[in-house]
Amino acid sequence: MKRLFDLFNCEALNPGLASDLVPYIFNDPNTFRLYNGTRYKQDKVPVAPVDAFKYSIRAGGNVEQDFINGGYQKVYDEAMSGFIKDILNDPEAGIRKLMRFDQYSVRGYMADCLKLPGPIIDWCETMNRSTGGYDLSLTQTVLNMLPFSGGGVDWYRLKYSPPTYLPLSVSDVFAEVARRCSRLPWNSISVGWRRQTLFSSAKLLPVYVQKPTPKLSS
């Protein structure tokens, strides 16, 4: 990663680019969480065993009190942390263990291997993932968590810094799309979508350009 930051800081190659590196914010205490008609600021949400968002059976929900007492994060951590610890301690052995469950989604693993009830899995997904997050591959989810599990790392992102605004007509837009499309890289393995962004004096015009499909020789 040091070499990557060296490239950002090299004024000869990337003038001004270093100033576009800003801290990546994972959680903002000034945002809100709203579930079941109950809203809290992010930094004011009561922690377990408080049933802050009325998911317990006694509050009219379908989550047993024992799970409410421990909290959704405890359920999720107990399901996933073993894989993370094993990989960090012994990458080769940890990956082999994870591959034994490669056929599962997160939901499937929690239901079939951990025998967690459906309402508990739904509750955990609602509280700590986006809709459908537990339908992703278990392997993919664990590997996505790994970079954020070591600690002691400062994360950055590129600040959105558009170029000088210029008025663009519709014909200008299509001409620019054609020009960029002619330079799009591709290979025979990965063919997908690449986002190109154009700017007008009035608004941002996002343009999606498909990579050309390579012709495979017989």
Structure in a nutshell:
With 218 residues, this protein is α+β, with helices and mostly antiparallel strands. Helices cover 37% and strands 13% of the residues.
Overview of this structure, please?
- By secondary structure, the chain is α+β, with helices and mostly antiparallel strands.
- The protein folds into two domains: 32-148, no CATH class; 170-210, no CATH class.
- It is 37% helix and 13% strand.
- The protein has eight helices and six strands; from the N terminus they run H-E-E-E-H-H-H-H-H-H-E-H-E-E.
- The protein has helices spanning 2-9, 65-70, 72-89, 91-99, 106-113, 118-128, 138-145, 170-181, and strands at residues 21-23, 32-35, 38-41, 156-158, 193-199, 204-210.
- The strands form three sheets. The protein has a two-stranded antiparallel sheet. Strands 2-3 form a two-stranded antiparallel ribbon. Strands 5-6 form a two-stranded antiparallel ribbon.
- A hairpin with a 2-residue loop joins strand 2 and strand 3 (38-41).
- Helix 3 (72-89) packs across helix 4 (91-99) and helix 3 (72-89) crosses helix 6 (118-128).
- The longest helix has 18 residues, at 72-89.
- The chain starts with a helix and ends in an 8-residue tail after the last strand.
- Residues 161-170 and 183-218 have low confidence and may be disordered.
